[in-house]
Amino acid sequence: MKHRAGRARQEGDAGALPLEKLLGMYRGMVKIRQFEEKAKELFQQALIRGGVHFYIGQEAVAVGACAALREDDYITSNHRGHGHCIAKGGRLDLMMAELMGKATGYCKGKGGSMHIADLDRGILGANGLVGGSMPIAAGAALSAKLRGTGQVTVSFFGDGGANIGAFHESLNFAAIWKLPVVYVCENNLYAISTCAAEATAVENIADRAAGYNIPGVIVDGQDILAVYDAVSQAVQRARRGEGPSLLEAKTYRFEGHFTGDPGVGYRTKEEVEAWRQRDPIAKFRDDLTATAGVDEAQLKAIWDEAAQELEAAVAFAKASPEPADEELLTDIYA
Amino acid sequence: MSEMTYAQALNQALREEMRRDETVFLLGEDIAGYGGAFKVTQGLLDEFGPERVRNTPIAEYGIVGLAVGAALTGCRPVAEIMYMDFMALAIDQLANQAAKMRYMFGGKARVPMVVRAQEGAGRSNAAQHSQSLEAWFVHIPGIYVAIPSTPRDAKGLLKTAIRDDNPVMFIEHKLLYATRGEVPAGDDIIPLGQADVKRPGRDVTVVAVSRMVHVALQAAEQLQADGVEAEVIDPRTLVPLDVRTIADSVRRTHRLVIVHEAAERGGVSGEIAMAVMPEVFDYLDAPITRVTAPNSPVPFNARLEGRFIPTPERVAAAVRSLL
Fold first, then answer.
1. Smallest Cα distance from A142 to chain B, Å
2. Contact assignment for B69 to A125 by CB distance below 8 Å
3. pLDDT value of position B195
4. Which of A275, B76, B254, B287 could cysteine-pair with A252, CB 3.0–4.6 Å?
5. Are B43 and B58 contacting, i.e. CB atoms less than 8 angstroms apart?
6. Where is the domain boundary, B183, B209, B240?
């Protein structure tokens, strides 16, 4: 049931989508890139503590997938979650305050980078356990089915997550119960330092869809329109009650695994550079100017607007107070 | 008031809560047509249908994980894990996900779910189907732990657990399912954190957990013949723990024995003792003591298993040693 989605499809052409939608997608990618670059800088200044897993290089996956969703649809995320959160409409100011551990953050500073959630926007949480959100996504899909809401859940996970037992149990549950969930594997080739080829017996994670009798689709994760197109089809299928799909976006993290990993040693400079040449934002910018009639000035305006929003978010976060001591013992039980 | 078994009381609780709230649904292995390995869900498929009484694959991690996702998004799932031992397969979803979400997400998440599992030895089920593991869950902030010993408590606590907005680990005992007792009709709700004095007494306080409540009551009968009046207290929930009821009792009796079927090391007896210590230290006439299983796996051989499980005689002997 596996097929390879590609840019040859008519729907994948930039010209086939309304301009406002396209520019919104571009804005989403830019916001993620700028947010992550800023977070890196703030971490280096010790204004952000702990560890941060940067999404730089993978922006097309989160934004392309979330552009295919309704506002009330759900997403689950993983440790590399900032991009998913921003793509689903998460607020930069609340995110940045959370990264800095401030009382005004999404989680009152009690969750941090790996646990940001915005339940009002269907963001069911980043997750510190690899694979941990996969059955939660199936559960949210089951809940939507039982409540008859028509909501679909997209579950983001990585090539590392594909090798934990959660993957199998979740996909099997979703398949036997025809749950409205789309599993999006962001195969960025490395689970920390372990190459996917070393840890995975199949060439493509999507090949495993056959084991669950569901569609398995491979997309170019650097091509936002290909991602959007493939996820749209899977979401429509899920909404029709036909069950889950497994999508595999071939992508790459430009940075190391997290703030403490320079991302070299297990990857060659040539490999990193080759992927950097396939920057998803640069590619989309080219698509927009070539096929959607967008000019450079419009794109620069979007970049500048995003930078202003981010600057305000950082200022908000910096000016925000630390959580009060009492917060240590609140929110443990409802 | 009517007499019924512990299993029937649980069944009634599920049935009544499913009638009351359509977001309540059940999932677990063999719980639908088969009625559950211990027949707790018998007949519920007929009344509520396969959407709300869901047979699952053998996938404990997924069962609890799906419950977490459903609870987070507006349902009240009740998951059945066939044997407590299998919680080892699911504990990440309960301990790292369900228990943490409210806190990690700054108080915005609600995870109203119940995980039911039965524990305990006494059926020659050997080491992987007999453990008493309540202490695992007591140690994780963010989960409540209910552990009823009678049909009435089972029904009242399960109804409360289902209505509660937090994850509740609901621990049954395999040898209690067939035991009978009076259960009030209708909504006999038992709050979490309220211990029950199963037998009043003046000479010693015996705090017992799950089936050990009945063992303690038998011990109290034996002690009565010697003129010793034991007060038997069932905490009913270990989180929250009703420290006050236990401490009030110990201040009157000046002695405390704690009984559980779980292995001694790291068992809840240590926690109960330390929780009451500041309240009772000046009143104690003897050291707090405990009667528990040894620090061994549960043996298969029935004679060895009989030596593993605390007996009324051992409890009575522990009490006498304090007098």
1. 7
2. no
3. 98
4. A275
5. no
6. B183
- Using a CB-CB cut-off of 8 Å, the residues of chain B touching A107 are 104-106, 108
State how beta strands A245-250 and A181-187 pair. parallel
Question: If you average pLDDT over residues A61-74, what whole number do you get?
Answer: 98
Classify residue A234 by burial, with Cβ atoms within 10 Å: 0-12, 13-18, 19+.
Answer: buried
In this complex, the residue of B52, B96, B109 whose CB is nearest that of residue A119 is: B109
Specify the pLDDT at position A16.
83
Note if B254 is an active site residue. no
**Banded model confidence at residue A131, pLDDT cuts 50, 70, 90:** very high
Query: Domain-by-domain residue ranges, chain A?
Result: 3-320
Q: Which residue of B has its CA nearest to A155?
A: B69
Inspect the interface and report whether the beta carbons of B65 and A139 lie closer than 8 Å.
yes
Tell me the H-state helices in A100-246: 134-147, 165-176, 196-199, 224-239
Please give the distance of CA B88 from its chain centroid, rounded to a whole number. Answer: 17
Q: How close is the nearest chain A Cα to the Cα of B51, in Å? A: 7
Residue B1 has a pLDDT of 86
Q: Rounded distance, CA B186 to CA B12, Å?
A: 10
| pLDDT per position as a tens digit, A187-245 | 999 999 999 999 999 999 999 999 999 999 999 999 999 999 999 999 999 999 999 99
ipTM summary value: 0.96
To the nearest whole percent, how much of chain B has pLDDT over 90?
A: 99
Q: Do A140 and B69 touch (CB under 8 A)?
A: yes
- Residue range A3-320, CATH number: 3.40.50.970
CATH of the domain at B225: 3.40.50.920
The mean per-residue pLDDT over the stretch A66-81 comes to 98
B24 CA: distance to closest CA in chain A (Å): 10
Q: What is the CATH number of the domain that holds B15?
A: 3.40.50.970
